[in-house]
Here is the input.
Amino acid sequence: MKRIWLLFSQSVTVLVAAYFVVATLQPDWIRRGNIRTSAGVALIEAPAGTAEQPATGSFSAAARKAAPAVVSINTSKAVRNPHGKDPWFQFFFGDQGNQEQAGLGSGVIISPDGYILTNNHVVEGADEIEITLTDSRRARAQVIGTDPDTDLAILKIELDKLPVIVLGNSDAVSVGDQVLAIGNPFGVGQTVTSGIVSALGRSQLGINTFENFIQTDAAINPGNSGGALVDVNGNLLGINTAIYSRSGGSMGIGFAIPVSTAKLVLDGIVQDGQVTRGWIGVEPSELSPELAETFGVKATKGVIITGVLQDGPAAQAGVRPGDVIVRVAGKDVGNVSELLTTVAALKPGVAADFAVQRGEGQTTLKVTPGVRPKPQRAAQR
Here is the structure.
């Protein structure tokens, strides 16, 4: 009995010592949690809780942790000359053939399975996509799927021992939080810039159909598109997507797609080959005193419906022009962007409650959303 107890105590001592060594030298091995999404994609998520601030005031640890998972993306596309087959054009200028158009961007490795998040406009129309890792390894990437409505794309590469970024919680971000932007601006090589979260929930910018951007003053320039916006612990908060600029360079206003949105797009594309969103077939407008008076509705908040598609889901449920939608599936909607996002999150074919202000009264309608039609839009450049 004494021998068994001695063996047990020695084993416990060794395990505790090993835990403290790992906790000191590699704390992320303990903190991060390996999960799989409903589509079976392996991800690494940071533990719930408030982001820790760096004790030294330096962001070097966060940069070392996140930077290896941020890759450079080089694309090529054959551009056909519209006059190439014209004999007179060939007589004067010769046979110029097809010209190659090159593109540059960034991406983030989010899974040991080789999945990479980037922007749709980085890879749209590309014939070839080459990924370059920070360890100089290169690989051809396959486009698994794209989602123009959020300007996101999912790529996949076949390499071993990939560095994977840890996913943070973009829903817990606050204005004033310090962040880092990592990418390959202007093709000079991987660059890390710092700043703060300037605003949250930016929408109505005319960039995407569904907009819920994190705004930051961390320097973002051409080539940063598709790169990572991370917190002070190196956890991914968003995908850098666009800048406001009059010169083409950073002016301190950049926009990133939250990682919460990116995870939904990833799951939908990997599982179904596309992102399936709800749709009810209405033309919404921001509620204004003038529109409220025109339609004779007594409402001060919500989204007014100025048009209803004939035989669409909303029309079949009894929604009329002039109705003001104030709540969808128990969630308040205060503007068009919130309505579009909330309806898009509904499951097609499953009825949801819509609280509607009509005239001086309020009613609740059961609307069964359909599948949102694919967007018909020109290529972004």
Observations:
- The longest strand covers residues 191-202.
